[in-house]
Amino acid sequence: MSDRVTVSKTYKLYLGGAFPRSESGRTYPVTDSRGKFLANAAQASRKDARDAVVAARSAFGKWSGATAYNRGQVLYRVAEVLEGRRDQFTAEVAAGEGVPTKRAQSLVDAAIDRWVWYAGWTDKIATVLGAANPVAGPYFSFSVPEPTGVVAVLAPQQSSLLGLVSVLAPVLAVGSTAVVVTSQERPLPAITLSEVLATSDVPGGVVNLLTGHTAELAPWLASHADVNALDLGGAPAELRTDLERSAAGTVKRVLRNPAAEPDWTNRPDISRLRAYVETKTVWHPMGV
Considering the entire predicted model, what is its pTM? Predict the structure, then answer.
């Protein structure tokens, strides 16, 4: 009897809650840390990036309009499904990042816990970042944080799951929607995360995941007039200045990151939540 031939997987993009192929028809091979073939991933194009922004903008009204408590419930459901696929994530992180299984398990557990941490912040953001302002006059004055809109996230290149969760979850927690360019060489955990999102309660279009070449996709997102913020975390160092210049053309918020990836296992703070909100101040006359 001959040995069985393994069926090679060719993964798709995640846009608007669906899994289309790249409109260009391109794919590229994904290998493990030793160069062994794992799967084929879709190589997204400029058109795919535009479609992702359209999907994110279409989903923004419903997601930002949901109650903070409901967003927390939805994000917690994602953590539940993540937990159920822990073994698959562990295998993909171990293969892609070249770490032992126990280390991969620890990273996956940290990613699940990180998601839960941000889910718990959804109904606390307004209290912590908002205020009732003291004014001299017959008025009430309130400062209220509101989601900034569509955020383009260039995911960390090295930390394929924990880093990805650390940059994506705060975008969703505040009520913004996301277009994510995944780690170029280590996209499999992100692809599996897209399957988790699709089978959780996250509305289609709230998260859109593009696999492919970061240097190809980043300039189009940086210059796109309907993208409100840009996270440069996974941007190639030689492109960062050009990307910031392009983002300035449409007055985007730009989240700068160190050239070297941080240690994502460190305890997070609320800086990423603060980065994706706009403060609206409301004045209301007091009754006589």
Answer: 0.93
